[in-house]
Sequence to fold (304 residues):
Amino acid sequence: MRTTSIRFFLSVCCFITLTSCQDKHDGAVEGIVVPPGFGVRITISQSGKTVHAVDANTQDGKFRIALAPGKYDVSVNVPASPFPVTIAGINVDPGKTATLPSVEIVQLSGTAALSGIVSPGGPGTKVTLLYEGRERATMAAAPDGRYEFTALPEGKYTITASSPGYASDSAEIRISGDRRTAQNIRLLYETPIDGVDWPRGVIHAKGKGLYPANTANHTAMHEMARRAALSEAERNLLRIVEQIKLAPNRDLKSIMISGTFTVRIKGYLQGFKISDEREVDGGVEVELDLPLTGPGGLTRTISE
Fold:
């Protein structure tokens, strides 16, 4: 009996010693989940692999997890909610505690589902679901880009997809009743292209039209020059679109040989807005903006 007690005492001392030593080199993540309750699960992952999982305190929703220095994703979920909340890219420094903002879990349930394919897929492809403007769930897509969210309540959603080397994109979806809704997203490969503003998700093009000769009416001259400027700007938009890549070795022009895609692209190009119009020496110059990503963007045209 005494030997057992001594062993237990030594084990406790050893654990305390190791914990103390570990604390000097490790950092930690702490936070609070609202509302607190049973089954509030905190999962820590790194590079897509789970490295730690604990339950938050049932009384106050608080949690604290010691971690080796590095970058982690923190996911919070409760049994009654279809919406795990993920906070990505949390940096843990040696000997320091990263305090997360309060995590609010909305306990909703439903019978609808949302699924689809993110192209091109591959490692690091993530899909985030927002409900009524707030992030509710984040998941890693399957190797082929497939994703699925289930047990969704009726409402308006936004889904955002991202993949290393590609421009993030999003789509708005309205789900009603117990319907199963599909939404595919084709991401665009980011390369430097004159006229493409990747951070804003916008294509920008200019066009100039000259005043016609032998036209006495200034109003008619201006309108004719304006139409010529718009035509040139639209041609420049098309040239830019043809350079956009779907993958490192595949540009959009390669799929525009299809009649269906050609019609879609022509329709897409008509979605521009005139961002500036001015008279210049000898004519009129216009500037056009065309959405590249997001609602009304190019990917909506080519991924359906």
Residues 26-103 form a domain with the Immunoglobulin-like fold (CATH 2.60.40.10). The chain has three domains: 26-103, 112-186, 191-302. The longest helix spans residues 218-243. The chain has a mean pLDDT of 84.
